Amino acid sequence: MIETLWFCLIAVMITGYVVLDGFDLGVGIVNLLVARSDEEKRTVLASIGPVWDGNEVWLVAGGGTLYFAFPALYAASFSGFYLPLMIVLWLLIVRGISIEFRNHIASPVWTPVWDSGFAFASLLLAVFYGAALANVVRGVPLDYAGYFFLPLWTDFRAGSAAGILDWYTILTGVAALLALAMHGALWVAMKCLDPVGKRSALLARRVWWGVAAATVAITAASFAIQPHLSQRFGQAPWGFVFPTIAVAGLLGVFLCKAPQTELFAFLSSCGYLIGMMTSAAFGVYPLLLPASTDPALSLTIDNAAAGSYGLHIGLAWWIPGMLLSIAYAIFTYRRFSGKLGLE
């Protein structure tokens, strides 16, 4: 029971990171598309200025919680995914440097470098995060010791000899890119005055069609590649509430076209991401990392969890820590609410 609770808590933390830092990444992806002058680019960047670094705390907290609750999963994934994790780390560094240095080094030479670094790092991070989720759903070649190694790519087939990148993980990465681009565009539309806000809303409506098509494609591909998903949803039909949330959120984004519905459109996008992430978590449960070689070698909430006593004690520390983090996030978003102009 306690193992299931920690599984749910980690799923909530990762989902929270995707929703919160997702629009930060999305802003980076669409920045060069919706902002044309230097003033407009500074306005778009200012829309995430007070919150972007705080949003990334959820990634650190999620990784720390994973290490505490499921150390076997942490050890296996961080060794098997070593190369992509290093790439993600460098992309996070480039993105952070680009955001901060743009406001501190005013130079006609360096400003385009920071803008390009912000956009490039955000785009690749979205793709890599999507590919990472796809690897978890698809499974990895775990051995009897609970470890694995994956090359960056092989023949791009989603079989037992697949690499980190295959057609399925790339498809999911592109879907994540489109979803976060829409998410970020809706944030900019909500936070920035026209003409930046108007351009962002138009871009979000255009990207919506790609998100809808990609959602159908990755859903069909996931059920075809991972049989456990069909078994899980068949055994517990109530889990279809999670895909329903995703569909409702996607429809909400489509229906909110009027300027006065910007907030509801963004919240609908949040609902879409929450529905997609929780659907994936529900579908793989009780697996944490499926084995593509032999299902019996999969890491589950039972064989990868820490001791029961430690999990109970950790819960007493996790709850107040999360309450403080949530309170700080609420204060920050309320303090910096409202639209931004060029001034």
Describe the model.
By secondary structure, the protein is mainly alpha-helical. It has helices at residues 2-34, 38-46, 52-69, 71-80, 82-102, 110-138, 167-191, 196-225, 227-235, 241-255, 262-284, 308-335; strands at residues 287-289, 299-300. It has a two-stranded antiparallel ribbon. Helix 1 (2-34) crosses helix 7.
Sum this structure up briefly.
With 343 residues, this protein is an all-alpha fold.
Sketch the topology as an H/E string, one letter per element. HHHHHHHHHHHEEH
Helix content: over 70%
The dominant shape is globular
Proportion of residues in β-strands:
under 5%
Q: Whole-number average pLDDT?
A: 92
Assembly classification: single chain
Order of strands, widest sheet = 1-2
Rg calculated over all Cα atoms: 20 Å
Low-confidence stretches: none
How is the main sheet built?
2 strands, antiparallel
Q: What is the number of E strands?
A: 2
